[in-house]
Amino acid sequence: MNFLFQFAVFTFIGFSFLLLIGVPVVFASPGGWTEAKLKTPLFSGLGVWFLLVFFIGIFNSFVV
Questions:
Q1: Localized where (predicted)?
Q2: Is residue 64 one of the residues assigned to a domain?
Q3: How many degrees, rounded to 5, is the angle at CA 26 between CA 37 and CA 30?
């Protein structure tokens, strides 16, 4: 159970790092936010990030 929790935290850190780089790249693209082709992967990443936040918060109560 600890391994699953550690894997979830590691995945959360990885997605946070990708979003830390990805969001400024999308906003700095030539068309800006309105013509960005990376909206779909960015929104998917944000969705996974929020799911990981809730999963880690719930799963944290089971890991002692």
A1: Membrane; Plastid, Chloroplast thylakoid membrane
A2: no
A3: 80
Q: Find the CATH number of the domain harbouring 45.
A: 1.10.287
Helix (H, G, I), strand (E, B) or coil at 37: coil
Q: In the structure, what pLDDT confidence band is assigned to residue 38 with cuts at 50, 70 and 90?
A: confident
**pLDDT at position 36:** 66
Domain containing residue 30: 2-59
* Amino acid at the residue 34: T
The predicted model scores a pTM of: 0.79
Which of these, 24, 47, 19, 46, lies nearest to 36 by C-alpha position? Answer: 24
